[in-house]
Amino acid sequence: MTRFSLGILLAAVLFMLAGCGDSHDLATPEETGVLKVATRNGATTYYLDRHETPAGPEFDLTRRFAEAQGWEIEWSVFDSTSQVLEALESGKVHLAAAGLTRLPSRDQRFTPGPSHTDIVEQLVCHRDMRPLPRQLEELTDVEIRVTAASSYSQQLASLVNDHTGIAFEEDPRSTEVLLEAVANRTLDCTVADSNIVKMVRRHFPHLEVAMNLTAGSTLGWYLPDGQEALAGEARQWMNSDAGQAAIEAMNERYYAYIGEFDFVDLRTLNRRIDDRLPNFVDLFIEAEKNTGMSADLLAALAYQESHWDPSAVSPTGVRGIMMLTRNTAESLGVTNRLDPEAAIEGGARYLADRHARLPEDIPEPDRTYLALASYNIGRGHLLDARELARSLGKNPDSWEDMKEVLPLKADKRYYPKTRYGYARGYEPVHYVKRIRNYMDVIAPAIAPYEPAEGDMQTAQAPYGAASQAPDTSQDG
């Protein structure tokens, strides 16, 4: 063979190798111990919390999967669905965990991984819109914008084919920004996944779900085309007891407590954030420095107790912004419960004490939720419930289990056997649920007042309350 022929052959081989998909060049996580994951910044996927620690439903679930395999994770965080899918298609990552709706077109383009969350796609409008569309036939002349390259645009495109008069436009803005535009009445309606709507409505109470556009969809992971082996591992783990427990933990942390509000609650809270919270925010931040209990947690607790009314008085004799009893105030050295500075500091120290008295090996955020329950119902009743949980084969360190056991303190089949007897055990369950909701809404309002992380010396914060996620969204 001539030197010329060898040159042509070598060039051809190099060309063929260059044409191979990058996914074949990406070393497997079994080889490197590193799982490369594409995701998006957003409240229902991945974000950095107030302590600059990664959080989010997709983050938690993917981390648990990687830990089960003994792998580290290398995250690639993008701003849009299209960027995530491009990274997947180019073979730059092993997995996309980005709140992706399962679609036939995506199933053909990529290797489907396991699904983890059931959702519906919802048409969202302003609650004062007249007429508020409740049927597809009523969408004529309604301005609808949806995030570009999302599952929403595919769903609406199919509706346009079946119903004359429906029109929509794709928009480069994120779903959360479009929902805000609807709340501000600069846009008639948009479409969003139900899990996104649940989170965002707490910040924009005027948002109204006009109708469901799908009977049901699922969110799940995708892998590059041809990566069946890794997809099989992911599906096997997700379907295992460990995977199902991870899904339950994800739902409990991010979604299960949402839904306690109604429109009036949310509207009142947002109004109080504007007209009352600024008067006390520095006191909550100072109390965080002194006790380690986060300012947004303390503010949410105070709102639950008094709606930030420093002169609040109940018929039972508790009073002040933290609604302290006389005995509790005296034990804390608070001489004037109507003094907001003294009351907030006292309430923070009392909550910190409830927290400190719980076993140190209880993980967060469960330990903080149990401390809140103790603040509400009393330490004795909480100890009763923890002992009852053990007798029933439940985990006394798990808030998910304890919120099932606490109501039994009002059940005559159980409370006569406890040391402290009857208690309205259902109250702390709702108490904690509402405070968690309040924290999510309040945290963004407090964030601008807080000093930089390195500038504030605090007691060790046991649990960074619900944190402000970036103003980006999940596009389906």
UniProtKB/TrEMBL annotation:
Highest taxon of source: Bacteria
Coiled-coil zones: none
Chain spans, region LT domain: 259-476
UniProt-annotated catalytic positions: E305
UniProt-listed GO biological process terms: cell wall macromolecule catabolic process; cell wall organization; peptidoglycan catabolic process
Record's GO cellular component terms: cell outer membrane
Protein keywords: Cell outer membrane, Cell wall biogenesis/degradation, Lyase, Membrane, Signal
Region described as Disordered: 454-476
Subcellular location: Cell outer membrane
Keyword Membrane found: yes
Membrane topology: Peripheral membrane protein
InterPro entries: Lysozyme-like_dom_sf, MltF, Solute-binding_3/MltF_N, Transglyc_AS, Transglycosylase_SLT_dom_1
Enzyme class: lyase
Residue span, Solute-binding protein family 3/N-terminal domain: 34-258
Reaction catalysis annotation: Exolytic cleavage of the (1->4)-beta-glycosidic linkage between N-acetylmuramic acid (MurNAc) and N-acetylglucosamine (GlcNAc) residues in peptidoglycan, from either the reducing or the non-reducing ends of the peptidoglycan chains, with concomitant formation of a 1,6-anhydrobond in the MurNAc residue
Signal peptide as annotated in the record: 1-20
EC identifiers of the protein: 4.2.2.n1
GO MF entries: peptidoglycan lytic transglycosylase activity
Sequence similarity: Belongs to the bacterial solute-binding protein 3 family. In the C-terminal section; belongs to the transglycosylase Slt family.
Function text: Murein-degrading enzyme that degrades murein glycan strands and insoluble, high-molecular weight murein sacculi, with the concomitant formation of a 1,6-anhydromuramoyl product. Lytic transglycosylases (LTs) play an integral role in the metabolism of the peptidoglycan (PG) sacculus. Their lytic action creates space within the PG sacculus to allow for its expansion as well as for the insertion of various structures such as secretion systems and flagella.
Domain notes: The N-terminal domain does not have lytic activity and probably modulates enzymatic activity. The C-terminal domain is the catalytic active domain.
Protein name per the record: Membrane-bound lytic murein transglycosylase F
Source organism per UniProt: Onishia taeanensis
Gene giving rise to this polypeptide: mltF
